[in-house]
Amino acid sequence: MNLVSTTRREFLHRASGGFGSVALSGLWSDLQAAPRNPLGARHGHHEAKADRVIFLYSTGGVSHIDTFNHRPQLAADHGKSVTASRWLNKSGEFRRYLIKPRWAFQQYGESGTWVSDLFPQLGSVIDDICVFNAMHCESDGHDKATLAAHTGSAQFARPSAGSWVSYGLGTENRNLPSFMVLAPAAPYAGAQTWGSDFLPGCHQGTQVVPGKNPLPNIRPRVARPELQKMELDLLARLNRAHRKTRAADQSLDARIRSFETAFGMQREAPEAFDLSGETEATLKLYGLERGATSGFGWQCLVARRLAERGVRFLELIDVGSNSNWDSHGNMADHARLAGAIDRPIAGLLTDLKQRGMLDRTLVVWTTEFGRTPFNTNANHAGREHHNFCFSSWMAGGGIRGGLVHGTSDEHGILADRDTVHTHDLNATMLHLLGIDHERLTYRHAGRDFRLTDVHGEVIHDVIA
Amino acid sequence: MRTLTITGILLLLASASSIEAADDNRDLFESRIRPLLIKHCLACHGPKKQESGLRLDSRAGWARGGERGTSIVPGKVRDSLLLKAVSHSDPSLKMPPAGKLSTNEIADLTKWVQLGAFDPRTLATGPPSPKRMSLEQAQDFWSLQPIASPAIPKVSDPDWRRGPIDAFVRERLQKRGLNPVGVADRRTLIRRATFDLTGLPPTPTEIAAFLKDDSPRAFGTVVKRLLASPAYGERWGRHWLDVARYADTAGDGADYPVREAYKYRDWVIGAFNHDMPFDQFVREQIAGDILARRTATDDPDRYASQVAATGFLAIGKRYGYKASPDYQYLDFADVIDSVGRSLLGLSLGCARCHDHKYDPVSAADYYALYGILQSTRWAFPGGEEQKRPAHFPPMVPPQQVAVLEKARAAELARLDTRLSSLKRRRVKLDSDWLAGGVDLGFESQKSGTRPGTPWVCAGPIEITNEAQSPFHHVHPQGSLGVRIGSGKPTDGLRYVFKDGLKAIPGQLMHFTVDFRSVAGSSEKGAFRFYLGRGVVQSLAVECSATATRFAIRNGRKWETIRRIIPGTWYTLRLTIDPAKKTYSGVVGTRDDLVTFQDKSVGRGWDGVANCFICDATGHVNGPACSRDLDNIGLQDEPFAAPGSQTVMLKTKVPGAAKQKIAIAKEIESLTGQRQARAAQSAYEVAYGVSEATPVNARIQLRGDPHRLGKETPRRFLEVLGGDQLPANATGSGRLELAGWITRRTNPLTARVFVNRVWRWHFGQGLVSTPSDFGARGERPSHPRLLDWLADRFIASGWSVKSLHRWIMDSHTYQLASDDDDHNLRIDPENRWYWRYARRPLDAESIRDAMLVLGGHLDRSVPQAHPFPPVHTWGFTIHHPFHAIYDSNHRSVYLMVQRNRRHPYLALFDAADPNQSVASRQPTTTPTQALYLMNSPFVHAQAEGLAKRLLSSHRDNETRVRVAFELAHGRLPASPQLKDAIAFVAGYQQKLSKSHVAPERNPAAWSALMRVLLTSNAFLYVD
C-alpha cells in the first residue's frame, strides 16, 4: 500500500498540486522524503472493483415512499394516525396521519425490483442497480444532512468524499482536475460540499457550471492562438533561465507545467464539453436536444465524457438549493423533478454499459434524507423531512445489480433491517475503489481524520 | 392508532415478560443471550471498541457499566439501563443504533435479567487502557515545561555572530554536518523583506536607496522603514486573521452577512501597526469588553476598540438559525477549539465528546471553559429563523448607551410629533376623512357584498343596512354596517389604518367601535376585538364578547365588564396611555355606560397601533355569535362622548387640494428622515461579546447537549494550573481566562506565538505544527532557540515588532535560497535552515502586487462592505446570502464569505475561514494558470503597467529594464533583455494582421507585462 500520510511534509504540498507528474531527478529518487505528485495515479489498499465514481446528488430530500420503497401497507393505512416522536426538529409526541404514495409502483426487470411511476426509465435498467431502502442519517436539516452525506460530518468543515478519493488515488489525466463537480447551483452548505478542507487544495472539487462557459478563464483573451503561444514561449524561456540556478525546486517545475497543462486544457476541456460529436442516438439516450448546454442530461453526458478522459470523481448536483425536491408544500413537484433526471440517469447507465465502462464506474445516487410518510392531516399535499429512513442506490463498479438491500417497517417510517448509514455508504464506495476506509487517513490538528470518522461498515452483501 | 414512542413500548415489554420461560438459566444464556450480544452489541461494546466506556463481553463489564453507570442490575428490569436502551424508550439512549431488536429478542433479554442475568463469561476486561498523557506525565512534556532562558552556544564562524538566533541555528547546522549557503544579494534581500513585511514589491527607488546605503545598518534601516509602513499591519494582520478564522459572513446555512465584522479586522491591523504588546492583544480579544468598562470609560476610542477586539471570539463559524441556546454548543465547540489552537497550541475540541485521547485535556476542562462562554452574551448575526442581528455589544460605555438612546428616542419622538401634527392638519382638510381613516363607517361599500379594500375578510361577512348603528357621535348618521356571521374561530374582519398611531410622549391614543350581538344569538363562544401592530404582531388592547358578556384583557387576565343583551347596540371607547402602558374606557348604551380604568396593555406591546381585527378567538372557546359592527375609529384626539351631538359630514375647505399636496410633501420628507434615523443605531456596535449571567456548565456526555453529566465549575485547564474563579467573582470568567492565558508562567502562549512569527518569516516553524504543541504535534527542531525567543519576547514587553527585528537582523534570515547538493541530501526540507526557503507569493500578495504595478491599487482603508440594508434580509438556506464585491483595495479588505468562498482567494489557497488556519497549503494547479493567462484582472493590470511604462520612458531598452525591476526586483540579464525587446517587435508584427497601428504598441507591451507578471521570478520570493 502506498497511501502515505503527507501532512508533515509541507514541502510536498508546495512541490506540485499540478497535474503534470514531475519526473524525479536522480538527486531525489533515492531520498526517503522524495516528493511525489499528490495527484499522480496510484493504487489503493486492495484490488479495486471500480476506477472512478459518478456521484449523483438530488438536493432537497427525495421521498423514499414515492420512489423506491414500495410500502403497500402505507396505502392501505392511508389516513390512520401514528404518533411521531419528532416533528420539525422538535421532540415530543405528535399525532400525525399516514399519507399514501402519490404514484403507483411496478416491478421491473428480471429482479422484479419495485420502482414507482416517477422513474420508469430507471426501472428499465433496474437490473444494474442495487437499491438501499434502509438508509438513515442523524440530521433532518438540509445543510447539516448535505454536509454529512458529502463529508461524513454534519457539524464541522471536513474534506468532501471526492477530495478523499482524489487524495487516495490521484488521477489519470493531467489535463483535467481529479475531482469535478457539475453543478448548476450550489447545494445546501455551498462549496463546502466539495471542499478539500485540510487536505491539500489540489484535491478540492472544480465546479463546472453548466452553460456556454462552464470553466472560468478557459477561453484565451488573446486575439489569436499564435499570439498566446508566443507569450507562453517567452514565459517558458524566462522560467527556464530562472530555473537554472534553482534546479532542486520541484514547485517551479510544477508551475511551469501547470501553464503547459492549462494551455492543453484550453483545448481539451472545451472539447470534453463539446457534444457536437455525439450521435443522435446518444443524445436521445440522455433525452438531450442538440445544442443544449444545460439540464441534467447535459450533466450526465458530460460526466461520461469526463469519465472517459480519466477524471476520478465526478459529482452531479441535481438542481441545487432552490426549487428542488424539498416538497413541503406539494409532492406534485416530485413529478417535474423526477421527469428531469429519470431519462438522463437511465441513459447514463445504458451508455456506460454499451461502452463497457459501467463495470469499472461506480454510479451512486443519493439525497440528504427522505420525506415523512405522514403529515398533520391525511389531505396534506406535502411531506416533511425524514432522516430515519430513506432510499439511495448504487450501480456498476462492482455492485450486484437487481438487488434491494435493507427494509423499513411497513409504512416506511423507520429503517429496520440491513440499515445503511451514510458512513456505510461511503465506506462501501471507498472499498469498491480499493480503499480501506479505516486506513485512508490524514493527520490534522493532532488527529488522524477519516471520511467515515470512527464509523462505517462496508456492505459486503451488495458487492458482486 | 399505532404508537411509535414510549407508551407503546412499555406496553410491549410488559406483555413480553410473560411470553415464555426457559427452564435453565445457562440454556437461556447460551442459546439466546450470548448470540444476541455478539450479533448486536459487542462490535461497539467489546474487546475492539468500548463506546461510552462500556463492555458487554463479561459479567464484570456490564456490572461496572459505562459513563451512565451499571447497565444491568440482576433481577431488576426497571433498574437495568440495558433494557431501557433496547426498549428505545429514552430518545437519547436507543440501542442498538442500527435498528431496534425484535420483540422476541427484547423479551429474551428481559427474561434473562429477571432471572438474575446468569453470565459465565469471566474474561479479564479492565477498562480501556488510557493512552492519554497523565497530568504527571504532562509535567515532563516539552511544551508544558516552564520557558527556560537557555545558555547561548559559542560560535566561531564570524558570519554567525550577529546574535543568539544565529548561534542556536549554527550549532545545529554544525551538528548535522550541514554547510549553510552564503548570504543573499541585496536585491533579493529587499524583495524578500518587502514582501515578507508588507505583502508588496519594493519600488525601484527603494531598491536604489538600499543598494546605495553602505552603512552596516543598511538592512536594519529597510526593516525599520517597512515596519513603520501601514502596509505592515495589512500583511501581518492578515496572518493573524487566518488563525482567527476571520470572515465577513456568519457561516450558518444561510450565511448571513456580518456588517460589523470588519471592525475586528481593522482592529487587528491597527494592533500590529501600533505594536500592541501581544499579551494585551490576547487579553483584549478575550475580555476587551470587560477591560473597557474597567479602564477606558473616559477614552471613547479605546473603549470602542477594546469592544471590537472581542470579535475574535464571535467571528467563528455559526450554526444557529436563531439566537437560542439550543444551537450554542456547536458555536462554542468552534470557539473553544479556536482559542485552544490559536493561543495555546492545544486541540481542546477533541475533549468535547470525551477526555482528549492523547493530550492532558479532559472533558471537564472543556466544560469548565464552556461555562465561561455560556456566561457570555454573544452577538447573533442573523439566521434562517431569526433574520435580524441581535445582542451586538455597544462600543460606548453603558452610561453613554443610555444617554445616546435617550437622545435618539427624543429625536424620533420630535419627528413623530411633527409628523402627527401634520397628519392631523391633513385630516382636517379632508372632507371624507373621519375618525382615523376614510370610510371606516362602511358607507361607501355596497350593501349585500363583503367589504372590499381596505378591508380584508374571511368567512361569512356582509355589508348590510341591518347593521347600521344608532350612534352618531363619531360618524355621521349612515345606513350601512357590517355583519359578521358565526364562522370558524379564525374567520373575521381586518382593517389596517393607513395612518396608524405610534407612541409619542404625552400623547394618548383613542379608539372606538359600535357593536352588538345579533338578536336571538345562542352561541357560547366569544368574538374579540384586537388592536395593535400588524396582524397580531404586537398586541395593545384586546376586548372580547359573547352574546351576553363583554370582557377586556387586563395584562394576562380577562375581566368581565358588563352584561350585554343580544340585539342591543353598544358603543365602546378606549383611551390608551402608551407612557403608562395602561388603557381606560367606557362601554354601553347612551344611558347605561360602564367605565373601566388603568388596565394593562399587552405585555411587550411595542407602542404601535395600526390594525384592528374582529375574529372569534375571544375569551370563551367555541363558535361565536353573529355580530354587527359599525363606526370604527382610531385617532390621537379624543372622540366625542356617546350621546353628544350628531357629527355632520365636513364641508370642503377652499384651497384644500393645494395645501394637502404641500403637507404630503413635508410628510414624505420627514418620514424619510425618520426612517433613516430609526435605521441608525444610537451608537456604534461591534460583532463581539459582552457579559451575561454567570453559570457553570454541565458536562455533555459524548458531546450530546441533551445528555448532561455533572456540573463543572468554571476554571482554567488543569494542566496549566486549573485555577478556579475567585469565590466572589461576579463576571463570566473571561477576564480571568485572559489573565491565565497571558501570564508569564503559562508555558504555551509565548512559545506558540513566537513560533508562528518564525513560521510566517521562514515558511516553516521551529515546531512544524504551529497550532499543535501537544502529544501529536511535532517536537521543536530548535527547542532552546524557541525558548530563547519566547523568553526574550516576554522580557521585551511582548513586542512583536522587536521580534521581527531580531529575526530579520539574523544571518539565518539573510541567507540565500541557493541549492546545495550536499545539504539537500541530508536535509531536503531545510529543517535546519541551511538556506532561506523560497516561497510562492500567497493569494493576497499576487493580487496586491499586480494591482500596485498596474497602477490601480487603492491604498486607503475602505468603508464597510456594501451589504444589502438589514431591513431587506430574508436569507435562508434555500436562498443564502451571496455576493462578490469588486474593489481595488488591498486584498485583506476583500469581503470574505465563509460558505461560498471568494473565487480568487479560494483558487490561490487563501485560508478557509471555516476554521483556524495555522499554515496555508499552497498548490500549483492548471486552473490557477488559466486565471493567470486569461482572467480580465491580470490583463487589466498588465495593460496598466504597459501604459505606465510607455508614458514614462521613451526607449524600449529602458522600458524593459524598468519593467523587470518593477516585477522581479532585478534587472534583466542581457539575453533576457534582448529576448524581451525582440518579443515586443515580433508581437507587433503579428498584430499587424489584426490591429491598427496605434493599438499595436500598447498591445505588445501588455503581452510582455503579462509574461513578466506570471513568470516564476514574480510568483516566487527567494
What does this entry look like structurally?
The complex is a heterodimer of chains A (464) and B (1022). Chain A has 464 residues and is α/β, with parallel strands linked by helices. Chain A has two domains: 346 residues, Alkaline Phosphatase, subunit A (3-Layer(aba) Sandwich), CATH 3.40.720; 64 residues. Chain A contains twelve helices and 20 strands. In chain A, the strands form six sheets. In chain A, strands 1, 6, 7, 8, 9, 10, 14, 15 and 18 form a nine-stranded mixed β-sheet that branches. Chain A has a three-stranded antiparallel β-sheet with strand order 2-3-12, with no helix packed on it. In chain A, strands 4-5 form a two-stranded antiparallel ribbon. The longest helix of chain A has 24 residues. The radius of gyration of chain A is 23 Å and the shape is globular. The N terminus of chain A is likely disordered. Chain B has five domains: 109 residues, no CATH class; 162 residues, no CATH class; 210 residues, no CATH class; 216 residues, Jelly Rolls, CATH 2.60.120.1160; 89 residues, no CATH class. By secondary structure, chain B is of the alpha+beta class. The relative contact order of chain B is 0.11. Chain B is globular, with a radius of gyration of 39 Å. The interface between A and B is large, with 100 and 100 residues. Strand 2 of chain A pairs parallel with strand 1 of chain B, so a sheet runs across the interface.
